[in-house]
Structure formats: structure tokens, C-alpha cells
Amino acid sequence: MKKLLFLASALCLMACKSTQAPKPVGATPHPRQLPWHEMEYYAFIHFNMNTFTGMEWGTGGEDPKLFNPTQLDANQWVKVIKDAGMKGVIITAKHHDGFCLWPSKYTEHSVKNSPWKNGKGDVVKELSDACKKVGLKFGVYLSPWDRNHAEYGREAYVTYFHNQLRELLTNYGEIFEVWFDGANGGSGYYGGANETRKINADTYYQWDKTYQIIRKLQPKANIFSDEGPEVRWIGNERGYGTPTSWSSFTSRPELTGAPRFQHQAEGDEDGKNWIPAEADVSIRPGWYYHAREDHQVHPLEKMVDIYYCSVGRNASLLLNLPVDRRGLVHENDVKRLMELKKVIEADFAHNLATQATVKATDVRKSHQQFKAENAIDSDTKSYWATNEGVKNASLEFTFAQPTTFNRFMAQEYITLGQRVKKFKLEYEQNGQWKTIDQQTTIGYKRLLRFPAVTATKVRFTIEDAKASPLISNVGFYNAPILLLTPKVVRNKKGEVTLIPADEATEIYYTLDGTEPTKQSNRYTAPFVVSAPTELKVVGFDHNTQQYSAVATYALDVPKTLWEVLNISADEAKNSYKVIDNNPNTSFAHKVGSQPAVLTIDLGELLRLRGFTYLPSQDRWASGTISHYTFEVSSDNTHWKKVSEGEFGNIKNNPIEQRISFPEEKARYIRLTAVRTIDNAETILYGEIGVITK
């Protein structure tokens, strides 16, 4: 009898254990991080002294009187952000130049000494108040590096930094994220010293004390920096995550260069801490407003691609809006944001999974709590789970009739950790299972795009996981076709070729600055543009009567007569790559430890108003110029220096640099690489150009 009772008790214990909810696995999110994950998409506002100087990184010696927006309206910013579908905003309260957008009592280098509102204004407060009115979350960016402060590099500055942090965290309501930039130490004004100062970024700012201040004053705020402690950088400023993306992360300070950036993007399968990735990118090439970039708002298809490669790869998207000199989000940016919102809404308008019946190959005991149907109930708090130890299982979806889809969405129940290591999506065709896609991680959200599939049966298989997979949501969608903007290619001779997205697309263009329509010039063959011209291009699909977004290109003089001078015979054969108008080629100029000097004969006397420098676009390129001098000459003997300085933030944002100077007549130009981002002995040039208009 005792044996029977013991056996019954053991069986009961086993049954009870089998009905238990899954236990956490690995690193798990803090409760404050879960609302952050749910935001997915929010705005960055870069608006500061750089807006009025035309720079990306200020030196710190700028006069506060330069800051004078004429129509600043934080309510306009907030309306745009909310209308675009974003859930919050982070403001650059102080960038590297040290100028403060609030009247800090610890410095004179702030809005209180600007002409804006006679020194009585507070941009941070205006934005915070505007957010409260419409229910947007509010965050602050405070640069640890300060190129203005006389005590930077010394202990007194750290006290100043902490005091400013306290001001921002006590006077502006609830903060959802505190953002610390990774740029630290270098040349600066420093109270007039005009010197270079180096610090140990790991210890100088007393991060433990910094984080204690935040935890005390804003317990719900998440802290961002390159490697956390609660939100990490994606490793680039292009907005793109990697296909493998773990929210678990272990800091590895020994990594540098490409391995470090890759690690920041991918995370660690067995990371010690929950530090999810945030993808930051600007809607334009630069982070701050420059009128010259009004026509360079990223194409709609690129913005859509960024969304799928950030939000769709287990990262949050922090999209920058560079407020202009008026103090408004520019109308071109607003137009693109609303176009993006329209695409996102259309892509995910109808979850077809809700029309299917679903069954699982394995369901955790007490199946009503962890049933397969939980994966299609649109509730992130319920989930399908397998029995303990079952790491390979499938959900099979059956539709009543053939159903077409081209998007797939999956979410894990991340409260108990990120688990899925590998998954596959298939559809049944003539009794055979065909693979649509096979990928690695899921995390909070994973989105897949693929050519349209029509099927009645679809199978989603977890092929490997760290533990019993927990799937909270699955979706199938049939997104409308997005008509892509035609691509523009211009060769060294000035010949322009327009490339349609597909055979059904016709291309129309204008050369006079007007908006192209199907009544404009229809593209049929390459044409030559021999003078500075604004080219506008649009695609048109007669089947759908749909236009693509309009693309605008500022074309300057052609490089037909250009020639690179004063280089070795070995390098001469590849030197054309620096003037071939192809951003995907690069020219390697080996110079050793001496400053690199590149001289170009323009072949004719031109009126120059500036120059352009595009660094190599190779992802992990070295030899990018950070500090330069630029000279011009009419005879290749007598030279005049017309510009010198720094290409701000070019390491993390290697975009084309456009430098203006007073008009000069010249036939020869000379660019000297005073310093590179990595002290390389070989300079890699993507492209060099001139500005004549």
C-alpha cells in the first residue's frame, strides 16, 4: 500500500512539474526595459549650435548669440512625430560643443545668453511640455564630451557633468531614456585653450555615480551608451541591424574596430546582461540640418528598408529629425515621414494568421495556458510553449482557401529570456514543403520580406532554441508592392543613365527644378549633363497608375578632363577611381607616416565655391580623413589654402562631406590628409569633387 501511495505521489509530482510555467533562461529584461521594447520606433532631435554653424561637430568656441531660431515650435515637432507613428522623442540637450538648450545654472554657454526669446527660453522644457500634451515619451541626450568647458579632462568637469545631469532629470518630468554618446576626448576650445585633451572614457566620468544619479532621480529611465548598461548601440549610424541579434550581451572592451562593431550589432547568445540594441539613423545624410541636404532626404524605399532591418531585427529604431534654422521639422522630412507611415500601415494592415487554424507539434502540459492559438491572439503576454526540453517544434497554419502573403512576423515572450537560435518558414506545394526563408534569432520582434507566396498550409518551425521556445505572436501579411525610385548613374564624362526598378516602370525627369510627372521628359536613352543642374526623377507604373517617390540629384560639372597628378606609376592605374563618379569604388594612396597629398588637374579653369570628399564606402574601411587642408591653384605652382578643419563624426557616419569657401578661380585642387581616423599609412578615397554653383 505504501509503495502504491509513493508511486501515486511521484506521478502526481511529475504531472505538477509538467504543468508548471517555463522558468527564465539566461539574461532577462528588467521591468523598466519591457515598455522600452514595446515602443519600437521613436524620434531623435538634433537641434543645437551646429544647426546655425553648418557643422556636425562644433568646436566649443561658438558664440551663444549664433543660436536664434525664428519660428521654434516644439508642438510642431511633436505633432509630426506622433502623426508619423513614433512613440517618443530624445532631444540633444547638449552636444559635444557644450552649448546647452536649457538655461543651466552651471554655465554661461547656453540659451540664456542667446538672442532667442531674449535669453528667457528653454528648448528642453518646451519639448517636454509638448510631449506631455499628446502622450509622447520624453528622453534626453547629454554629451559627456564637452569641447567648451575649461575644466574638461579634470575632476572639476565631472562634477559639472553630474550637476547638469541632475538638472535634466529633475526639471522636465518623467524620462524614458538617457542617452550618452560614445565620442569622448580630442581637440576643442576648452575655455580658450584650443588644445587636444585625452581621457579614459571607462573611468573618467565616474559611471557608477552617474548611473546612481539616474536610478535615484528617474527609476524608470533606460540608460543608453555604446555597450549599455540597459540599451546598446547597434554599431553603425546607418540604422541597420544584423540578421542575428541577441538582446543578451556581455561587454568585451578588448574588441576594437570591425569585431567590436559586429559584437555590438549581434550581441551574445549567452550574454550576462539584458542590453538590447538600438538603431540610430538620420532621415538625411547628416545629423544636423543643412540646407544643402534638403534634396537628400533618404528615399522612401531606403527608409522602409531601415525599418525592416531595425525593428524587424530585434532592435528599436531611433530616427533623427534635424530641426532646421527656423526651429521646425522641415517639410521635406515631414513628407517622407508620412510616406513611411503609410507604407508601414499598409504592410501590416491585416494579419492573415487570424484567418487560419493552427496546430503545434508539441504543447506544454496544461495546454490551455500554453496552446498554439496563443500565437495568433495579438497578445504579447500570452504565448505558445513546448514541454521542457523540447527545442524543436512547429506551428502549422491551415487556411480555408489559398492565401497570398509576402511578409512574416514573429515575437518571443522575452520576459523569460530570448531563446530561439534558428527557425524556418515553409509552405506546402503539391504535397511537398518548400522553404521560404531560414533565419537565426527572433527576440522581441522579427520581420521577414520575400516574394509573394500563395498557399493553404504554412509551417513555422523552431529548429533550435536555448530552451523551450515561447512564441507570443505570429503574423502573415500581404504587403502592397512599393514602386521603387529609379536609380541615377553618372559617369566621368557627365553621361546620365536612369535605371528603372523593373520593366513595367517608365521614368520621367526634369532638369529645371520642377516636379516630374508623365508629362515631363520621358527617359529613353542616356543623356549628357555638362553644366551644374538639378535633376529630378520619378518612376511611373501604368498598370497601377502609381508614381514612385521623387528623387533629386545636384549634378555639378562633369569630370571629363580631370586627372590625378603626382602619384607613383603603380597607383596611377587605379587613380581614376577617385574621380569616376562611382561611390562604390575607392582609390588607395599609400603615404607612410607623412601627410597624404592628392593633387587633381581639372583640365580647365573653373570658379570653385567648395569641394566634396566621400570616404571609401567599404563597411570597415580604414584611412578615412578626419582633418584636412584644401588648396587651389591656377598654375600648379602657386597655391592658396581656402579651407582647413575637421570632418566631424566621419568615423561613424562616413557620408559625403561638402565644404564651402569664398569663390576662387582654379584649375588645380589639392587635398591634404592632415590626420585620419585610425592613423593609417594608406588613405582610402571614395570620391573627390568640386562645387561650382
List the topology elements.
Blueprint: H1 2-18, H2 33-39, E1 41-45, H3 49-53, H4 74-83, E2 88-94, H5 123-134, E3 137-142, H6 155-170, E4 177-179, E5 186-188, E6 195-197, H7 207-217, E7 222-225, E8 231-233, E9 248-249, H8 257-266, E10 273-274, E11 277-282, H9 300-308, E12 315-321, H10 331-347, E13 357-360, H11 367-370, E14 384-385, E15 393-412, E16 420-429, E17 432-439, E18 446-465, E19 470-477, E20 487-490, E21 495-499, E22 505-510, E23 521-522, E24 527-528, E25 533-541, E26 546-547, E27 551-555, E28 563-565, H12 569-572, E29 587-590, E30 596-615, E31 625-633, E32 640-646, E33 657-676, E34 682-691
Parallel strand pairs: 1-2, 1-12, 2-3, 3-4, 4-7, 7-8, 8-11, 11-12
Antiparallel strand pairs: 5-6, 9-10, 13-15, 14-19, 15-18, 15-19, 16-17, 16-18, 20-21, 21-24, 22-23, 22-25, 25-26, 25-27, 28-30, 29-34, 30-33, 30-34, 31-32, 31-33
Uncertain segments of ≥5 residues (pLDDT<50)? 1-18
Major sheet summary line: 8 strands, parallel, barrel
Report the mean per-residue pLDDT as an integer: 94
Q: Say what oligomer this is.
A: single chain
- What's the shape? globular
**CATH architectural label of the largest domain:** Alpha-Beta Barrel
Radius of gyration: 28 Å
Number of helices: 12
Count of DSSP strands: 34
- Percent of residues in helices: 10-25%
What is the total number of structural domains? 4
Question: Quick one: CATH superfamily of the largest domain?
Answer: Glycosidases
Instruction: Tell me the name of the CATH class of the largest domain.
Output: Alpha Beta
Report strand %: 25-35%
In what order do the strands lie side by side in the largest sheet? 1-2-3-4-7-8-11-12
Taking the alpha carbons of the first and last residues, their distance comes to: 100 Å
Q: According to CATH, what is the topology of the largest domain?
A: TIM Barrel
Structural class: alpha+beta
